[in-house]
UniProtKB/TrEMBL annotation:
Function: Plays a key role in hydrogen peroxide removal.
Name under which the protein is recorded: L-ascorbate peroxidase
Source species of the chain: Sphenostylis stenocarpa
Organism taxonomic ancestry: Eukaryota, Viridiplantae, Streptophyta, Embryophyta, Tracheophyta
Keyword match Signal: no
Gene Ontology molecular function: heme binding; L-ascorbate peroxidase activity; metal ion binding
Length: 414
C-alpha cells in the first residue's frame, strides 16, 4: 500500500490523468483476484458520468442512486455482524490492503485547523461520492467500495464512515496485526458538496519526502512516531507500474498471486502484517522488494530513524504504537453519535471510558489500569458487561444461603 495514494490499485477510469507520485503514497494494493472481477462490470465505465448523483451504490452488478444515509450512530449488533461478513470477504478475496487504504483515505483528509464539520474532512464517509473517488490519490478505490457495498446493503444500520473504518481495522487484525482499540458511531456526510477538496493526501515521491510527510501528517495532528508507525502498514500489499507508476511488473514474490500475478511488494509475505517492512527497508538487500522515496526517508531522517530502527528490532513495540496510531487516524474529523462512540466486541480498550472496576470489586483503593482491564476481561468472560449486570442465578443463590444457614446452625448447636 503506498500509504494514502493510489499505488497498486486497479485504475479503471482511463480518462483520469494521474501523476505517478500522487497515485502511490498511502496505497495498499489488494489481491488482483478481487479486482479482476470488478473490472468486468459492464456498467463500471458509467461511474463518473454524473458527479451530482447522491452516492455510488453497487447492486446487481450495476450502479444506482440511493437516498443519503441517516445521521445517527450505527447499530452495535449490525456492526458485529458486518465485521463477520468482512472476515468472510477477506478470506475469499484477499483484499486486506485495499480495505485498509479505503479507511485511511476517508480519514486522511482531516485538517486540524478547521473546526467545522464536515469542512474539516476526516472519517465521515465522503469517499463514497464520485467527486471524491475521482481524486487522483483515490484511483482504484472504487473497487474497495464495490466489495463493501453488498455488506452496506445488508446492514443499513451501519454508516459508510463506520463501515470503511471497520473494514480497515478488521483487515489489519485478520492479517495477523494487533487488535485495534476502535470505536464506532461515526456520522456520514449527506451530499457530495460536503466532500473535501482534492490535494489533502500525500504523495509517494515528492522532492523532499520527510518534509512532505510532516507537512501532511502534522496537518492531521499526528507526530513523527505516528507517521513511522503508520508507514509500517506497507508490510501489506503490492504496487503495479501499469496502474500506479511504481514497482516492477512481477517479482518472485508476486508471480503466483494470490489472485492475478504481478506487481512488486514491499515485503516477501505481503499479506502478513508484521514488522518485516522495517527490516527489509533497513537492509535494502532484496531488489525484488519495493522501496519508495517516502519509505527510504524513514531511515534517512534522524527523527524518523529512531522509531524505524526500534520497530525493525521490536515487533511488539511496533504493534503497540501502530494500534494506537491507526485508531487515532480512524477518529480524525469524525462526528460521533453518541459523542463517546460505540465499542463492539473484543477491542482491547472496549468501553474503557464507561468501565468502573469498583462496581465489580471491593475496597476503596484505586486499582491500576492493568487490574481494571483484568477484572473487566474476567467479568465479560462470564457474560457480564459494564452496561448490563450479570443475570442472577436464583437457584444457586438459594443453595448458597441454605448452606450458610446450615453451617451457622451447626456452629450454634455445637
Amino acid at each position: 500500500m503506498a500509504l494514502f495514494s493510489g499505488a497498486a490499485s486497479a485504475r479503471i477510469i482511463p480518462s483520469v490523468s494521474l501523476s505517478s507520485s500522487s497515485r502511490a503514497f498511502f496505497s495498499l494494493s489488494s489481491s488482483s483476484s478481487s479486482l479482476e472481477c470488478l473490472r468486468s462490470s459492464p456498467r463500471i465505465s458509467h461511474l463518473f458520468l454524473n458527479q451530482r448523483r447522491a452516492e455510488v451504490r453497487v447492486s446487481s452488478g450495476g450502479y444506482g442512486t440511493v437516498s443519503a444515509p441517516k445521521s445517527f450512530a450505527s447499530d452495535p449488533d449490525q456492526l458485529k455482524s458486518a465485521r463477520e461478513d468482512i472476515k468472510e470477504l477477506l478470506r475469499s478475496k484477499f483484499c486486506h490492503p485495499i480495505l485498509i487504504r479505503l479507511g485511511w483515505h476517508d480519514a486522511g483528509t482531516y485538517n486540524k485547523n478547521i473546526e467545522e464539520w464536515p469542512q474539516r474532512g476526516g472519517a465521515n464517509g465522503s469517499l463514497r461520492f464520485e467527486v471524491e473517488l475521482k481524486h487522483a490519490a483515490n484511483a482504484g478505490l472504487v473497487n474497495a467500495l464495490k466489495l463493501l457495498q453488498p455488506i452496506k446493503d445488508k446492514y443499513s444500520g451501519v454508516t459508510y464512515a463506520d463501515l470503511f473504518q471497520l473494514a480497515g481495522a478488521t483487515a489489519v487484525e485478520e492479517a495477523g496485526g494487533p487488535k485495534l482499540p476502535m470505536k464506532y458511531g461515526r456520522v456520514d456526510v449527506s451530499e457530495p458538496e460536503q466532500c473535501p477538496e482534492e490535494g489533502r493526501l500525500p504523495d509517494a515521491g515528492p522532492p523532499s519526502p520527510a518534509d512532505h510527510l510532516r507537512q501532511v501528517f502534522y496537518r492531521m495532528g499526528l507526530n513523527d512516531k505516528e507517521i513511522v508507525a503508520l508507514s509500517g502498514a506497507h508490510t501489506l500489499g503490492r504496487s503495479r507500474p501499469d496502474r500506479s507508476g511504481w514497482g516492477k511488473p512481477e517479482t518472485k514474490y508476486t508471480k503466483d498471486g494470490p489472485g492475478a500475478p504481478g506487481g512488486q511488494s514491499w515485503t516477501a509475505q505481503w499479506l502478513k502484517f508484521d514488522n518485516s517492512y522495517f527490516k527489509d527497508i533497513k537492509e535494502k538487500k532484496d531488489e525484488d522488494l519495493l522501496v519508495l522515496p517516502t519509505d527510504a526517508a524513514l531511515f534517512e531522517d534522524p527523527s524518523f530513524r529512531v522509531y524505524a530502527e526500534k520497530y525493525a528490532e521490536d515487533q511488539e513495540a511496533f504493534f503497540k504504537d501502530y494500534a494506537e496510531a491507526h485508531a487515532k487516524l480512524s477518529n480524525l474529523g469524525a462526528k460521533f453519535d453518541p459523542p463517546e462512540g460505540i465499542v463492539i466486541g473484543d477491542s482491547p480498550n472496549a468501553g474503557a471510558e464507561k468501565f468502573v472496576a469498583a462496581k465489580y470489586s471491593s475496597g476503596k483503593r484505586e486499582l491500576s489500569d492493568a487490574m481494571k482491564q483484568k477484572i473487566r476481561a474476567e467479568y465479560e468472560a462470564i457474560g457480564g458487561s459494564p452496561d448490563k449486570p450479570l443475570q442472577s442465578n436464583y437457584f444457586l443463590n438459594i443453595i448458597i444461603i441454605i448452606a450458610v444457614l446450615a453451617f451457622l446452625t451447626s456452629l450454634l448447636g455445637n
